[in-house]
Amino acid sequence: MIDPSDPPEVQIAKQARIIEALINRAERGHEVGGTAYSLFQSAITLQAKVWEKTKDLEKALDTLGRASSELEIAYQTQERMQRNLADAMVAMEGGFALFSEDRLQVCNTQFRRLLPDVEPLIKPGLAFDDYLRAVEVSKSLASEEDAGVKAVRRSPASGLPEAPGHGFSSFVIALRNDRWFQISCRQTTSGNIAVLQTEITDLVRENRREKDRLIDQQAHLLQAAFDHMSLGVCTFSSDGELLVHNERFSALLGLPLPLLKKGASFQRILEHIERHEIVDRKSRRPELARWFKALRRGETVQQHFRRRDGMRLDMRLHSLPDDGFIVSLMDVTAETEAAALLEQRVAERTAELTEANRQLQVHAAEQTKIEGALRLAKEAAESAHVSKTRFLAAASHDLLQPINAAKLYLSTLTETVEEGGAREVVNRLNRSFTSIETLLQALLDISRLDSSGAEFNITSFSIGNMLQGLSEDLAPLAAEKRIELRIVPSSRWVTSDQRYLMRSVQNLVVNAIQYTERGRVLVGCRLAGTRLRIEVWDTGIGISETDQARVFKEFTRGGGGKGTGMGLGLSIVERACRHLDHPVRLVSRPGVGSMFSIEVPLAAPGHVTVYENPVVEAAPTGDLDLIVMVVENDADELHAMTQKLEGWGASVLAAGSTLEAISLMQEIGTPPDIVLADYQLDEEDNGIETIRTLRALAGCEIPAIIISANRHRDFQAQADEMSFAVLTKPVQLVRLRALIDWKTRARVA
Asked: Where in this chain does the record put each Response regulatory domain (predicted)?
């Protein structure tokens, strides 16, 4: 009935009402009962309840006394803090004021007396904005001319805060007695505004003295620079009075020193030159009125003179910002003589050209010989281009060999490194080698397509399988850029080179992902008569009409050079589709997106002819409990492949040639479970001979995989004939692991 959280006076009032109700109840009980025992019993009950309520009242009074004591202590603490704050404000060197809820609460004497005409306004309750306006219009502030600075005005761009809640601001005011103060306004965490007035007069005066010293120093430096100039320089005020000159000016005109005193008239100097005939009489007379009018218009006046001794002088007058002007004199004797000599040489050269024109007619007869020589040079250039193409194609094995070894080592290192920083370095190396591999494959593809004997394997195949493989390969790249990649399935069959067509579509999709910042990339097929048009749509940056004509050239990237890569992807698409007679089309709008398409001939559905190795959706993760024979003539790649296979749990027989492989197989007395051999070994040795020899010795068909950069059609046909798989370098380890498992399981089956 009584809430302990209520104030003591409320609790006492409630208890009084309860006691009164109990007394009334006892009286009613006496009237109803009428017996002595009932009266006695009611009195006992009433007395017990009165005692209980009396104790509650005593507790409430005790609680009220303690609360009163604590309140008295709080009042004393507040008074002590206010006295400490007042003492601290008095002891401060600058002015200080505290505004709470945009109203002045407390300030010290220095703050109040800074501006005499503002002092009457500084009282508790003064609004913060009123204080700023009063400071702004105070008559104690120095004018712009007195202060030497531009006056501060209350505007959105000024340093004065418009209202509380702006964090921190500071501005400087100048008083008429050459005193300077910095006023800083800072908002506290509780929403109050603290204003601090700090005198910076000594700092301003010191800066002023330093400025004057620097000006004097610069004046000396300027005079020294004038004195060492090869030009004669002299400056005049707006009234034509001399200010500064150098010795070269007087030397070029032969003027006496008294005439070049500060304040001398420019007209007097010209009269002296004319009176003493310092310049030739044939020189143009000075026109001062015309000169001064041109200078006032901001133009440059130029005049040439010739001294009596033959020296040529070039005089130029330039206007200065303060309506003065500067006169420069230059000795142009050498230049004038050179010009005359040049004119003479021009005349001589004209005569020579006339003679040369006559001789050109004689050389016309030799033009036929020159054209013949040009044809020979063209044939030599074409031969060099063919040699270059053949060299790149032949060197693919040597180029891809170290990359393959490095990727094997990086794969092993990725599985062993656990430290975060080292793992990041390994990941960056993996990405770098992937970029190198991509660029190298692009260069090799271009070299193959540019060669006159480029080989193509034209077959009929389902376009749906190719698109599904593209979706699996490029989905991570699109996910990394947060681009929606959608590839519409198709059941159509086409006739083309499957590898080059897949590479071309892959390049188009990769380009679309790279040049799309947001949105999606859509790949689908559309019938076009007897052809199937493969279209790649994107919502990227688009390609301007100017860039559309050159994006298919090597090392060209659209969109102002954005994106990654070397700009070879579209060049490969253009070359491959030109050889395959597949029309390529581009439609694009800048800022909207692009559409690339490739048209290929339709084919009747049939049986799939597999020229590529089977793709397993996911490589097994268990240990390889196999004996693997690895034949590789490169020691680094052999070591890297051995480490990778042993990391997968396989027992590896490492050999550098066919003879070493035979020796190892005879030593263990049993054929290996699978053979991994490089195609190109030392001298006449190769991986195909290794497989043929080991199978002959074992008397059975050992599963085998050839790892090579060779992509010729004959090589693939031989692989089909001998039933071994082919992996191109650099090897994709996921595919290698899946292929090993597939080949060995097929043998067991």
From this structure: 627-744
